Amino acid sequence: MAQSEESQERFWESFHGPNMGYIEEQYELYKENPAAVDSSLKELFDKHGAPDHVRREKGSSQQVTQSGPAIGDVKKLTSAMKLVEAIRRFGHMESDIYPVGRDERETNLVKPETYGLTEADLRSIPASWLWEQAPSGVDDGLEVIERLKALYSGTITFEYDHVNNDDERAWLLDYIESARFNKGVTDDKKTELLRRLIEVENFEEFLQKTFVGQKRFSIEGLASMVPMLDEVVKNSIDDNIEHIMMGMAHRGRLSVLAHVLGKPFDKIFSEFHHSPDKELIPSEGSTGINYGWTGDVKYHFGATKDVKEENNPSGTRITLANNPSHLEFVNPVVEGFARAAQDDRYQKGYPSQDFKKALPVLIHGDAAFIGEGVVAETLNFKGLPGYQTGGTLHIIANNLLGYTTDQQDGRSTRYASDLAKGFEIPIIHVNADDPVACVSAITIAYEYRQKFHKDFLIDLVGYRRYGHNEMDEPRATQPKLYQDIDNRLTSAEVFAEKLEQENVIEANEWKKMKDQVTANLREVYENMKENDSGDAEAKRMPKALTNGLDQFDTSIPLEKLKKLNKDMQNRPEGFTVFRKLERILKRRENVLEEGNKADWGAGEALTYASILNDGIPIRLTGQDTERGTFAHRHMVLHDAETGDRYSPLHGLEDTQASFDIRNSPLSEAGVLGFEYGYSVQAPNTLVIWEAQFGDFANAAQVIFDQFISAARAKWGDKSNLVMLLPHGYEGQGPEHSSARLERFLQLAAENNLIVANVTSSAQFFHLIRRQAAMRGREEARPLVLMTPKSLLRNQRVASEAKEFTEGKFEPLRNQPNLKVSKKNAKRLVIGSGKVMVDIEEAIANADEKFDWLRVLRLEQIYPFPAKQLEKELKELPNLEEIVWVQEEPQNMGSWNFVNDHLRELLQEGQTLRYIGRPRRASPAVGEPNVDKTEQKQIIQKAINPSEGGDSSERN
Fold it and tell me: Which CATH topology does 187-527 take?
């Protein structure tokens, strides 16, 4: 750390006479070759600079006026300096941060004898030589060591040597060593902390006794988490932060809901459903909290709370996100919440971001933090322009165990927090039984975040008083640890004893507090009504979800569309586009003129431009999304000479909505979770995520399963998120062919999703515009869209201008370029996606007539357009068979989903047949020639009059 010239002079002034001569002689060697001097002297010169200016200023005739017995031994001084730095770096290794389960911790790295130092040696060194900012009362080296050990090896300790920013390290060192974080902890504050711990612990004890054996994932052993969060809320209100976005798993969730979010006790009690003596419902006037219609277990629910103070009349909203049992997967969702709250999207270009509008707080489990990859994915967001949120406060709720797994079996690192070091996140370890230290820790973390807008992590080290849940018996797997826990007073009792010893509270005063809290809980419980409504029934989904999707007008006047297309040709003055790319973009100028067609890239650009023109912001992210994985999009241009960036959609006139397009990190679970969270928090924004290849979405399966498909039914969270998943069989092997369409159809129920596979740029236009039109409405739901790869430049998916300006999205579409003879049709071929374009091409290249054939494209697979298909079938009087055709293997794709729907529509004597690849373990073959042969056979079977494929007859 660089020193000022003044402080360097003060240091060297302490050396006199022969000592100074020796120092200067060594410094001359150091200048020629730093490695030529003793390493301790090298460190001295590196830190304090040149000593010879002191002699020049004082004059060579100045004589020694004072000396000490250790001044003549330079190595003693440098060894003491090494000891000081070791305490700062390694003091945590013998800190008192474990309430239970650890014997006394010590390390030779912070012992004076390791450096050849005695107490006498240390006493002979002035304190200022070792610690420039030594407080009054610290006069010599021994007192420096004792004071620093108290700071770095107590119930709170610090790791920040891995932080590479000099300003941040200097700030942290000053904050810690000036003990600013401990100032202001008055006796009244301590009493308040004790009362809070008693409220938390007695709430848990009441649940334990009243609802015997019910799971609740108690906070006991980590109760100090609540006053820590109280401090975050207080500071956020004082700083006018609009949103505190919180995410946490199960441990302590009910206590956080009750004490931080203010969820009524009777509401929580009612969610235990029954006690030995009564069925429960909340009392009249209890705060209502909206959930979905199927609900969830009590320790998965979140809540919101609005807090207003005189100094913050606009208020601060606290949000605890709903969270499934997949522990850490809520992390990116919360970051998405925060980013959406920070962005101002109602302006051209990229949104403007204000870090002060939202503060993310994430509470992790110790085993999950180091064990779940989504944690690293989320930490990686901290410095990325499209994903940063100005710093997240992380708390590891460290109960020393992962279910029944000991630490040595669950991680390869010393601490659960060590993952954060790779992201240069400062770390505090703190003993959960010292609430003063815990509140001090969160104070440092909060102030650091506010100053540097970066993440901070607190490892809150405690224990769990019961098993993984209250039905679990932990003594079978951790007998020694639970012997310590059984013999340990609770956090409140430990703190109460300490305050009694300090004469902060009177003897047994804490017991009176405890009795009062218990009496209040008992009163709430006794006043609850009994539920006499009979057997509980599941709620039904909102009626709006059953109303269909055909009420949205997605057409747009031709002149407006042409104007938008023209605006997208604008460039900043002097902006030079790569020559080859400019030719591609130039071709888009006339796509709306008569006789021309807009391919997929042009149609997609028109889609987004028209939505922005409607005043609807768009956020579009994914791996390589700016250009497009298949080089079709080009929505961020790079100046060929300067490298400057420009998006054609930022130059639209008369548009006051942001277009936020970002290349994402190489992540699926983290990024998709972030975009889902963004879409929930910003329901009036069209949020789109694109997978690089559709099958890569597999890495985000938890987000699809637990959040996107089920969150509204479970928790009432509403999302209009769009997911673009490239899909289609072109011989590129298993991972580059299938977006696993079958998995989304398997998740589809209660109109929770829209699953589509469209085959024209106009269909994409109307589908996405319909999705934008549903924003913020009850009809809103996520859209899973299979998008093309090889078809992107195929003119068979290009659309004329009138297809954009007229009509709307067609869930069931006539096969283009095929004359329809409904009277003669004997076979109806139905399919979805690229294979239908292949069939169109095969028919166009064939010589025979196909008046016996009717072909329909199922563009929206879910919700299945049963009524429209039924109407079509009634117009085919001589139909003998329905053939479902697909590219995917029989156990994949849409077949297993559409089979039941099609079978219900069969009339007497009609058969249903499947044409496609056989059942397989892998989605596609790896050899392009084999794939090509298979594809050709599928097409020929579909359009050949002779029967082929698997059939079943309606009986």
Answer: Rossmann fold (3.40.50)
Burial class (CB in 10 A: 0-12, 13-18, 19+), 184: exposed
Predicted confidence at residue 155, as pLDDT, reads 96
Amino acid, single-letter form, for residue 366: D
Q: CA dist 562 to 348, 558, 594, Å?
A: 20, 6, 12
pLDDT tens column, 603-648: 999 999 999 999 999 999 999 999 999 999 999 999 999 999 999 9
Q: How far is CA 272 from the centre of its chain?
A: 30
What DSSP letter does each residue of 315-365 carry, written as one string?
A: EEEEEE----SSGGGHHHHHHHHHHHHHEE-SSSSSPEE-GGGEEEEEEEE
Q: Quick one: which of 634, 658, 660, 649 has its CA closest to 567?
A: 649
Average pLDDT over residues 86-106: 92
Calpha distance 428→417 (Å, rounded): 9
Task: Tell me whether domains 187-527 and 558-806 share a fold.
Answer: yes
Mind giving me the DSSP string for 185-241?
Answer: --HHHHHHHHHHHHHHHHHHHHHHHHSTT------TT-TTHHHHHHHHHHHHHHTT-
In this structure, which amino acid lies at residue 618? I
What 3-state class would DSSP assign to 41? helix
Structure tokens at 724: 């673009």
Two tokens at 122? Answer: 């240390």
Q: Tell me the one-letter amino acid at 49.
A: G
Side by side, the strands of the sheet bearing 722-726 are 659-663, 618-622, 686-690, 722-726, 783-787, 754-757, 860-862
Cβ contact 283:266 at 8 Å: yes
What's the CA gap between 142 and 124, in Å, rounded? 9
CA 19 vs CA 64, 74, 75: distances in Å: 10, 8, 12
Closest CA to 861 of 920, 928, 934, 812: 812
Instruction: Name the token pair of 703.
Output: 């987000």
DSSP string, 503-557: TSS-TTHHHHHHHHHHHHHHHHHHTSEE--S-S-------GGGGS-STT------
Place of tokens 């889902």: 676
pLDDT of residue 183: 75
pTM of the model: 0.90
* 3-state SS assignment for residue 385: coil
Sign, CA torsion 201/278/285/245? positive
How far apart (Å, rounded) are the C-alpha atoms in residues 224 and 244? 19
Task: Indicate the SS3 state at residue 823.
Answer: coil
Name residues whose C-beta falls within 8 Å of residue 617's C-beta, 6 or more positions apart in sequence. Answer: 345, 346, 351, 657, 658, 659, 660, 682, 684, 685, 686
Tokens of 163: 């932080």
Report d(CA 806, CA 787) in Å as an integer. 23
User: How far, in Å, CA of 111 to CA of 149, rounded?
Assistant: 10
Secondary structure (3-state) at 619? strand
> In sequence order, which residues have a C-beta less than 8 Å from that of residue 568 and are 6 or more positions away?
588, 605, 609, 648, 649, 651, 652
* Alpha helices in 623-735, H assignment, sequence order: 669-681, 701-702, 711-715
Burial 760-791 (b: 16+ CB within 10 A, else e): bbbbbbbbbbbbbbbbeeebbbbbbbbbbbbb
CA distance linking residue 563 with residue 568, whole number of Å: 9
Q: Where are the domains of the chain?
A: 1-56, 71-153, 187-527, 558-806, 815-943
Two structure tokens written together for 143: 């007192």
| CATH 3.40.50.10810 for the 558-806 domain, yes or no | no
Taking only the tens place, the pLDDT of each residue in 322-366 is 999 998 999 999 999 999 999 999 999 999 999 999 999 999 999
Percent of all residues in the chain with a pLDDT value above 90, rounded to a whole number: 75
Contacts by 864-873, CB closer than 8 A, 24 or more apart = 864/897, 864/898, 864/901, 865/811, 865/812, 866/901, 866/904, 866/905, 868/811, 868/812, 869/812, 869/830, 869/901, 869/905, 870/905, 872/812, 872/828, 873/828, 873/905, 873/907
Angle between helix 39-48 and 5-12 (nearest 10): 140
Instruction: Name the CATH topology of 815-943.
Output: Rossmann fold (3.40.50)
